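Progress report, Aim 2. The chain analyzed during this reporting quarter is listed below.
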Amino acid sequence: MSSNSPSREPAPPGAWTFFRQWLRHPLSIAAISPSSRHLARLMVKELPPNCERVIELGGGTGVFTRALLDHGITDENLMVVELNEELHHHLSRRFPDVRVALGDARELPAVAKKAGFAEPGQVDAVISGLGLLSMSQELQTQILESAFCMLRPGGRFIQFTYGPVTPVSRDVLAALRLRSRRGSFAVWNVPPATVFVLTQARSRAVKAPPEGKNRTRQRSAAPR
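Predicted structure tokens for the chain:
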């Protein structure tokens, strides 16, 4: 092994919790282990300059949450949204000073309002651990509309995927007038992952989705 290769990292806290959820929901949680710290560092590296307020989607076991806090995002300026109840409880125990909301990413403005976190247009970045790759175009559109409603002009949506290209369909990118830029490649993640950054092609207001509308339940950690 090359001396330049990073040493294998120990299993992060909550790895067993994550694996247990995979055993229960193998169709909605594709990876059998949480994302690596290496991938988390690459995700955080894509935060915009002077970033202060961040929303994390699909917090899982908290690997990205820990990286965001280590980067300097303060507890009060971070909200983590998790749909899986057991993972939500795990995150709440692990990060008692962070707003950890049990909710749906498609209802982000309502979730943020209930948590007392931020109004639309007040967030600098959204970091996503959701499995956009396996989602329908309709579901992708709902999640991205919700996220960009919360983002300020110039804000970034940071997503990773296990595939070689952006996990968001070209039709969705075009419909929402979004640009997708390929970032770093996390070769030491299992499986290897690529980071993508989505931004608005030009500033425009994004309306919040209607609250309380019946929708198909999202999958919080499906194939990326």
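The domain at 35-200 is CATH 3.40.50.150 (Rossmann fold). The chain has a mean pLDDT of 83. These observations will guide the mutagenesis work planned for the next reporting period.
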